[in-house]
Design a protein that fits this description.
With 140 residues, the protein is mainly α. It is 77% helix and 0% strand. The chain is built from 4 helices and no strands.
């Protein structure tokens, strides 16, 4: 009986030793996977940083170009006399008809009469009418 216990104990110790060996191998594999993952994350981070730097450079170049174009347009607008209104000195037919229905003629346009005539229109429509009159050079 004592011999059987020793044999069973020996078998159990061998099985535990084998299990411990397998656990050590599993830990080594997990450590290697973690190391590989950290390297991959590092590479991805470097790639993302490179792409972001390129995009930032592109956006800065586009911004500089847009600012230069705005400066050119402002300079060009400053050199144009203020009396020129895109070469247009007439109102669209629909606008002239709208004003005529309100009793305002283009020949006798006064600020008070215009405001009174546009009272029935919505705010957006009033702004549109005044903008067209300004473009036509009829309103200062």
């Amino acid at each position: 009986m004592e011999m059987e216990l020793k044999d069973e104990l020996g078998v159990t110790v061998e099985r535990l030793a084998a299990a411990a060996g397998l656990l050590e191998q599993a830990v080594e594999r997990l450590a290697q996977r973690q190391s590989d993952s950290e390297e991959s994350i590092g590479r991805i981070g470097h790639i993302v940083a490179t792409v972001e730097a390129r995009r930032e450079t592109e956006l800065e170049e586009k911004l500089a170009a847009a600012e230069a174009e705005i400066a050119e347009l402002r300079a060009a607008a400053a050199s144009v006399p203020s009396t020129v209104t895109n070469g247009r000195k007439t109102l669209p037919v629909a606008m002239a008809n709208l004003l005529a229905k309100q009793g305002v003629t283009v020949d006798s346009m006064e600020a008070g009469a215009l405001d009174a005539a546009l009272v029935s229109l919505s705010l957006e429509q009033r702004i549109a009418v005044k903008a067209q009159l300004m473009r036509a050079g009829l309103l200062g």
